[in-house]
Every structure is written in structure tokens, then in C-alpha cells.
Prior knowledge:
Elements: E1 2-6, H1 11-16, E2 22-32, E3 36-50, E4 53-62, E5 74-81, E6 99-109
Antiparallel strand pairs: 1-2, 1-6, 2-3, 3-4, 4-5, 5-6
Amino acid sequence: MRFRLSDFDNSAVACAVPIAGLYGEAIRRLALADWGDGWLLLNLDHSFEYHGQPQQQVVIRSRLLNYSLEHDPWTSVFMLLVPNAAVLAKDALTSKDFEHVTWATATALPDS
């Protein structure tokens, strides 16, 4: 599944990404031991720089009850950064492995 992320709540993130938003492919489902399941790891089409660090992947999940990234055409999401890609190899992930930086809108894109 492909997504467009836009309407970033954090102005620093909004300034760091292209005006058109971020586009990426969901490459893995994740569960965080302390924040539950339903998270998707997106591999971005184009990286962006945030606080001097390039970001090629983000983790997202719907903020809205009864909304699912797999079933709804759009939803408000939590967006987490992956400060160290090595954490993705761990057996159990927690929120401490990521950096919550903003809320955003995720729009599912049609398969091409």
C-alpha cells in the first residue's frame, strides 16, 4: 500500500518536507509493546532532513478510533521517526525505539 502524508501538525516537520507532502510504501506492519499494534513502517520515496538527520522511513498509525490505514481512504495519524534503523531487527519494539514528532493526515493512494 502507498500513502501520502500531509497537513503536519508540527511546524518544524512541515517546513522540512516538500509542500506536496511525503509519499511512501508500507513495507512492514509493526506492534509496539507499550502502544499496541496497527503501526505501518513506510519507506519514503524521497528522504527529508529533520534536525540535521536524513529520514528515509517513518512509522504511522491512525489516531482515530475505529479507523484503519488498511481500510479507510484517509485518517489522522501519529508519525514516528526511526532514529536508528537497527531497532527494526529487535524481537520486541517499544515507543522508546522511535521519536514521535507530529500528527499528520494519511491518504491511501490507488495501486498503480
